[in-house]
Amino acid sequence: MLTRREVLLGGSLTLIFGGVACSCGAAHAQGSEYAGCAPSPSLEASLFDNVLGPTISAATGNEPVISSSGNANLDIAFGRTQAMLASAFKIDPGFAYYDDGGSKNAYATTAPRLGKPDGSVLFGLNFLRELLQMPEAPDAAVAAVCAHEYGHILQYKLGLQALNQGQPTVKRTELQADAFAGYFAGLRKLERPSFPAAVFARTKFLGGDNMIDHPNHHGTPEERGQAVVFGFQLAFQEKLSLEAAIEATTNYVLLM
């Protein structure tokens, strides 16, 4: 069960975001068919975007799904955020929670486990609880992680996981997913000037790692934060369409 603070936060998510509150971190294992944060046509687990730094996730892609967080207000907020992300990215994935145990995580998978055509996003309940304990704008931190995972679903749909071919790490697709999250934050900032978009960059900065030679390297803290800012500018300043943003973020990560 969630704490009273988390239950109250569930209500604030709906009020503050107008329903934008989602999250997702992840952990990849190259060559799989799911991805918490990195793509491939099959199973991919990635390092999850934990605010304490990356660790290896124990997710398998086959965890039993849980339909509710235990907080009705939070579930409503998640549902609204998912609808906004699906509309912004022109995708239709399923969403559910799962028991992530000690490996706090969230991930995207190409498997249509929830009856939706564009795969599924599963969000760990323990990871959710951790994000909701963040001292500043925890709702925005949750939304940042969720937007990143929905960015992976967009990559799967378009075959953009090919960006990793020939690369020693999954960094290109991870940074593009960060940029997609920034793009979403920019769209929200245009709709509501008080939207705490900077929290998106901070959350991804905190999820960076310096294991530059590891296959699951997602990008340094600086690279991840900068990718979010890049995506944000595409939406907020340049007001690019999704199609133009996809091209811009692809060119951006090809330089990495």
Explain what this protein looks like in three dimensions:
- There is one protein chain.
- With 256 residues, the chain is an alpha+beta fold.
- The protein contains eight helices and four strands.
- It has a four-stranded mixed beta sheet with strand order 1-3-4-2.
- The longest helix is centred in the middle third of the chain and has 21 residues, at 138-158.
- The protein is globular, with a radius of gyration of 16 Å.
- The protein starts with a helix and ends with a helix.
What distinguishing features does this structure have?
256 residues; alpha+beta
Summarize the structure.
By secondary structure, this protein is of the alpha+beta class. Helix content is 46%, strand content 6%.
Give the biggest sheet.
4 strands, mixed
What's the total helix number? 8
Q: N-to-C SSE series?
A: HEHEEEHHHHHH
Straight-line distance between termini:
42 Å
- Low-confidence runs (pLDDT<50, min 5 residues)? 1-57
- Average the pLDDT over all residues and give the rounded result: 80
Rg for CA atoms: 16 Å
Enumerate the strands of the largest sheet in spatial order, edge to edge or round the barrel.
1-3-4-2
Strands, total number? 4
Helix content: 40-55%
Structural shape = globular
Based on secondary structure, the structural category is alpha+beta
Oligomer: single chain
| Amount of beta strand | 5-15%
